[in-house]
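Discussion board: Methods & Data

I've been asked by a reviewer to show the raw model output for two of the constructs in my manuscript, not just the figures. I'm not sure how much to include, so I'm pasting the format here to get opinions. Each protein appears as its amino acid sequence followed by a line of discrete structure tokens. Is this the kind of thing reviewers expect to see in a supplement, or should I convert it first? Here is construct A:
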Amino acid sequence: MVTQITQGIKISVMTTFEGTYFKNHAMHFAFSYHITIENHSKDSVQLMARHWEIFDALNDLETVDGEGVVGKKPVLKPGEIYTYSSGCLLRAPFGTMQGYFTMINFTSTKSFEVIIPPFKLSAPFALN
């Protein structure tokens, strides 16, 4: 598990290799990731958007931007935790992801970015 705290918001990530799939006449490697967001600040915040940079060992880069996470824009009061799971397909058996969440602080009404720490995606059979 990797963790990062930005302005009192703690992000923790765990990953799982899910298997191989054929898509568009090519082998792909499926990974799930489980993200826990903890509000250790004194203010309520809302997750508004996400930005991902997904790299695979073949030097492919995919950038993903979107509203919320898994169709939601969760509000976290001080001390609250929100967890969700999602996934991605890579063309290589290993890679990395990193990014940030854009959040709004309800007290200051300002938006800020919360770092999602880089994390590895690796199929167990691909490791030495």
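Construct B, same format:
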Amino acid sequence: MGRFFGHLKTITLHKIRVTKLCFRCGLYKQGILHDLSKYTPVEFLSGVKYYQGDRSPINREKEVIGYSLGWLHHKGRNKHHWEYWLDNGDPIKAIEMPVNYVIEMFCDRVAACQTYQKEAYRDDSALRYYLNGKSRCLMHENTHALLEELLTYLSDHGLDETIAYIRKHYRK
């Protein structure tokens, strides 16, 4: 039962944080709908089984069995993930994400760092995490550039100024 309630608390806290950030950026519908698929059985039950509390259970599931059914379900239903925007041709092609989904991805990454890092969170946390995994992302170059711009701005200026920057330059 501890993993059940721990996972429920973690994903709900994360969703609330993303929703608040999306609202602050002017993305009201996306904030409300963000990550609702995490409450579906395929995502929720694997999340409970692999729950650790300090990182995504998806990563643990991939370590244990080599893949994550919950992740495959999640990325195919949530447009704020760059994996949603891959065209499965030969070769696989990364499609440029609409700006509103890049902003939601920014909010998602910030909230994930806040949720899992707790008191250790800093304004450069999401940028460091992104840069650590950047080479493994098959993301469109313009999507990469915008996400990195927003995460760098956050690192340099803090969250309040970054949200003001997003509203001024990308949510007119």
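Answer (T.O., handling editor elsewhere):
This is acceptable in a supplement if you add a one-line summary per construct. For B, something like: The mean pLDDT is 96.
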